[in-house]
Amino acid sequence: MSEPQIRPAARSDDAALAELERQTWSPLHAVTPRPEPPFGPFFDSLHRPEDFLVAEDAEDRIVGYIRVARPTPLASNAHVRQIQGLAVHEPARGRGVGRALLRAGALHARNQGALRLTLRVLGHNVPARRLYEAEGYAVEGILPREFYLDGEFVDDVFMGRSLTD
User: DSSP class of residue 73?
Assistant: First the structure.
């Protein structure tokens, strides 16, 4: 796979992103139940197209997305953006799509005036944690046993990085 093309999401991406979300759901990273029909739209009042970037392959197929949004509506942390979703289609994994999305997401956040970028990741999601660490994110806190998933307690790991370096 060649370098993925990253672009802002459009409302017309709704169906493709909803399908990608269903295909990539996994207890490794999801704290919500597996999606079941009837499926709702991907975009809604809390998940707006302008908060998403998508990765496309050489055939213009969406193979991944990242959601970068404000963690709260408070003016006191308007300088912070949070990654609130990252998904890469299974056949595209290990080919730089996630890394490209993380880098584009950081640039997107910087362009909005953000000084920090944060995220939350489940403690047992070692591949994601390694990728985040390789991209400059550091563990800033752990909520031990925050989730009970598939019969086991799982830590919620808070990570962040500066966008001013």
Answer: S
Beta bridge partners of 82: 69, 118
What's this model's pTM, rounded to 2 decimal places? 0.95
d(CA 80, CA 57): 30
Q: Give per-residue pLDDT as tens, 105-127.
A: 999 999 999 999 999 999 999 99
Q: Tell me the CA distances in angstroms from 18 to 1, 6, 23, 43, 126, one per residue in order.
A: 23, 18, 9, 8, 25
- Residue 145: Cβ within 10 Å count: 12
Reply yes or no: is the peptide bond before residue 73 cis, omega within 30 of 0.
no
Radius of gyration of the chain (CA): 16
- Three-state secondary structure call for residue 137: coil
| 92 and 57 Cβ atoms separated by less than 8 Å | yes
Nearest alpha carbon to residue 25 among 14, 15, 16, 36: 36
User: Dihedral, CA atoms, 59, 19, 5, 31, nearest 10 degrees?
Assistant: -150
